[in-house]
Design a protein that fits this description.
Strand 4 and strand 5 form a beta hairpin. The protein has four helices and seven strands; from the N terminus they run E-E-E-E-E-H-E-H-E-H-H. The strands form two sheets. Strands 3, 4, 5, 6 and 7 form a five-stranded mixed β-sheet that branches. A two-stranded antiparallel ribbon has the order 1-2. By secondary structure, it is of the alpha/beta class. Helix content is about 50%, strand content about 20%. Bound molecules: zinc ion. The site of zinc ion has 6 residues, from loops.
């Protein structure tokens, strides 16, 4: 599992921009705390080849899944929490639970620095959860 800000990064598929080209369906990892996104290490080589191809071709948009058979990579997200819109809320709650557990440990150890880092993480995670729930409510209200 990859970590960022001490939180587990989530596996997903996303659209990335490389100069003027949009690349769709790229396997990525992202951090639920700071929203940092990185290309999944397992497909970094393929990603670079596709980027080069798209640049050479001046393609405004390419679809990663059309060039690389992602289904033949079952181990891709084996070590990280897979997410999609459906369970994003659960994933956030899970990350909050982990942070709360760690906060208990940090309190026992009286580790001030770790405590404040964890409190900061909890604040960001709960803010994201609040926004996510609010957005879902707005969607169901307008539907
Ligand atoms: Zn982060």
């Amino acid at each position: 599992m990859s970590f960022c800000c001490g939180a587990g990064m989530l596996g997903s598929f996303g659209t990335l921009r490389h100069f003027k080209t949009l690349l769709h369906n790229v396997p990525i990892l992202y951090c639920p705390v700071c929203n940092r996104i990185e290309v999944h290490h397992a497909i970094e080589g393929e990603y670079e080849i596709l980027v080069e191809y798209a640049q050479g071709d001046n393609a405004p948009e390419v679809d990663f899944s059309e060039f690389v058979n992602i289904e033949q990579m079952p181990e891709l997200f084996e070590n990280c929490t897979m997410t999609d819109e459906g369970n994003y809320e659960d994933v956030l709650k899970q990350q909050i639970d982990i942070a709360l557990d760690l906060l208990g440990v940090a309190t026992q150890l009286d580790d001030q620095e770790w405590r404040s880092a964890l409190k900061d993480r909890l604040k960001k995670l709960s803010e994201r959860l609040r926004l996510h729930i609010k957005r879902n409510q707005e969607i169901s209200r307008s539907a």
